[in-house]
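Q: My collaborator sent me two sequences in one message, no labels, and asked for predicted structures for both. Can we handle them in order? The first one she listed is below.
A: Yes, handling them in the order given. First sequence, followed by its structure tokens:
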Amino acid sequence: MHLKNARTGFKSNHLFLTHACTYNNIRTHVDTSNAHFSYHASIHHPIKRAKQHSKSPLITTKHPIFMLVNTSAIVLHSFKYKENQMIVDMLTEQLGRISFIVRVGKKGSAATKRQFFQPLTLLELAFDYRENVGLQKLNDIKIAHPFNSIFFDPFKCSIALFVAEFLYHATKSEAQTALLHNYIEAGLLWLDSCTGSFANFHLVFMIKLTRFIGFYPNTDGFKEGCIFNLRTGCFENYSPIHTDYLTPTDSIAMYQLLRSNYNTMHLFEMSHEQRNRCTDIILNYYKLHLPTFAELKSLQVLKDIMR
């Protein structure tokens, strides 16, 4: 028998009720297969019925709310969990940082899915997002933009591995931000298509990323001979009482990087030592503003290969 509840307008057969709504490509479902419904014999007595409803909820469900999400994502880190499972950390366009547990295999079609989880792979995902669940499960996955050169060029690959580890630590506290995701995606696509000089890519990429996570340097006070205060993110005329600031020479290099972009960074010529120095400065800047930012294991590999 179907009953129509006066408050919600939903029909129920006492066995299953699904409520769905759509918002920004996210569909929200409440599965109340085992829900408890409150129906009263006094259906013809509205006053008495209203009092009864005020004392007990209409529906009490044991199932969590979940959202069907379709989003772009960037793989940051993955590792083997069990023989046929991996845990993968991704930065999604709609929900920010999400961790997934995925099933993979050694044979058949499942084997190809391992390739989906290489660092910085650009994906399209569909999954049921459950709030307060640490590891989400994928419904569907496909590669959004296959790379043509990043995984095959040793220099680009070393930069990509460094950038992936850097992003894994730099974006840990980032929630939903499409602008951050789109900036990273655009940078990776530029690197993949680049046929010219890209030795300074990681420097420009890292310093420009600060715009999206809250501590982009202020260049208004720059002039020759000034220093860059790493704590305040400002160019200043006088040295502060602490030691977290750059010399005038390093401050000029920081200013030039801030004015550069991917298409003009080749004009900023650096020696191997100067490039490594700038890398250390930017990473130190992140450590001052992100207390949980860790030492990067891939840093030395990048320094060795980009000679």
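Q: And the one she listed second?
A: Here it is, processed independently of the first:
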Amino acid sequence: MAQPLLADRDGRGTVTTEAIEIRGGVELPARREDIELHTRDGLTLVGELAVPVQNEPVATLVTLHPLPTAGGFMDSHIIRKLAARMPALADLAVLRFNTRGTDSPRGTSEGTFGEGIDEEYDLDAAMDFVAERSLPHPWLVGWSFGTEVALLYGRDHPVDGAILLSPPLKRVTPAQVAVWAGDPRKLVAIIPEFDDYLRPDAARRAFASVPDIDLVSVAGGKHLWVGETQTRRVLTEILERVNPRALPMPTRWA
């Protein structure tokens, strides 16, 4: 569970604040709104939009979570930490949602798992929401299964780029990868050294048809990016592409 930014009370009942370390479930200030997305096949999906408290967002992360049949959802830890930190640290808007049939504490999205096929409609609905809210410079950020949704359908939308975290390429053919060749939008693949499905050497071969891909090999990384060191590496790689002026990320918040 996210831990809201703490305020300590002294013996007189007044509230005092002190700098805290940014790690784990710490949730930094943001304006957070429970939202619903409506697909063109008639489903309602649940989600959250987090935006900076004071500034207008400079860019938007549209997140796509890991495989729901293996426990992936909008609260999967990298996606949750993007929403918890990026509005405050980098002036980013973060949209996260449960794809069809996926459950989380926020609620359950209607429908059933679509094997990466019907999820095309879920991404359509998310991008419709981005347009309706005039959210700027959207980037797709997919993790595991979410990378496949981004690869398959991301080119149909006005995004600045797509960032792939631990892409397994289980539901994406070589031809479907190759269509990204020559696309002016940035395609970034962040590959853990010890991934369960696609390690760096195999990833270079799999993405060889997209010569302009920005492929990053993360030494010591694993598919689930567990631990603060791996989390910060992933968030830093994302910021380097989306808003490098926000780097380096602070480690404490006052």
